[in-house]
TrEMBL record:
Residues 107-361 form the EAL domain. InterPro entries: Cyclic-di-GMP_PDE-like, EAL_dom, EAL_sf, GGDEF_dom, Nucleotide_cyclase, Rev_trsase/Diguanyl_cyclase. It comes from the Bacteria. This is Bifunctional diguanylate cyclase/phosphodiesterase.
Amino acid sequence: MRALVGDLGYVARQGGDEFMILLPTDHEADLIEKTNTIKDALCSRYNIDQHEFFITPSIGVSLYPRDGTDFDTLYQQADTAMYHAKHAGRNRFAFFTEKMQATSTRALTLSNALHDALEQNEFSLHYQPQVSLISGKVIGAEALIRWHSKKLGHVSPGEFIPLAEESGQILAIGEWVVRTAVRQIQQWIEAGITPVRIAVNLSSAQFQVGDLPKTTIKILNEYRIPVEYLELELTERIVAKDPEHTVIILESLQELGIRTSIDDFGTGYSSLSYLQRFSVYKLKIDQSFVRNMTTNTNDQVIIGTIILLAQQLGMTTIAEGVETKAQLDMLNNIGCDDIQGYYISRPIPAEAFKKAYLENKQRIIAVDD
């Protein structure tokens, strides 16, 4: 970096793997060119002891006086832009914008509020019914977390889950979800109601923790709930991240009798050679394929292929995001086992789910034969 900057500016190590570069410029285009040169040099191939290494730098840029007139402000803005570049995929640079500042401020506010959310009992679970296309009855539900902050109001899971994963709070939140779902099953049983199987989503961080099987069975035993009433969902991206670790954890869960499924199937890059080794009983077809399946032949073919693959491997299939009768009928015709989506119901609170689907075990959809 010093060689590239030369006598034009200054290079200093801020700490850890962070460095600061101070450069004068008359034109933004010249700065972009220089930044690209630095990025390309850093991501070159390095050979150390017969091993090759690659660095993927993330660079944030702020400009004086546009983004600030003092060092602390300019450093903070460049730091914000750097994290934006990092989250956008690394090996790139980004110039600071006011939108980044708003996003950064919002993220900080949410992160601070998340620290108190569990203690303040601000989380709740909603349940979205899953319906068998053979019987037309509700055979399960997916538990979905909701956060209503006393300070910020309703916060979307799509906004706070990534922050919880980044901060490490997802482990405590994830265990809370499993415990709350299991406790809800217990309450239904104690009320004399036969529950359905509840599916709970796992984060990547939860799945990487080696004691996941032990923690899960401990919670089930604590509330005296049979293992067949709980299902753990992991995404295909989690599977692809470390297939060998996935096999070990899934086998441990299977030995305990805990069912697992792969969520968002078809959107990741899991190896088919590993899929045959995974101890899962269900593949969940991603809603991105279901959305346009009645008008897009490619989506139809993909869904049909996933269903055929599952059948050959002895797995069942469920399609999420079903919103129309036409989608339901097409899924039934090509052999999908179960569905969930707004055509049946949005995720609803536990009491509403009990009244609508547990106290009434009647067929809720008619499926054409």
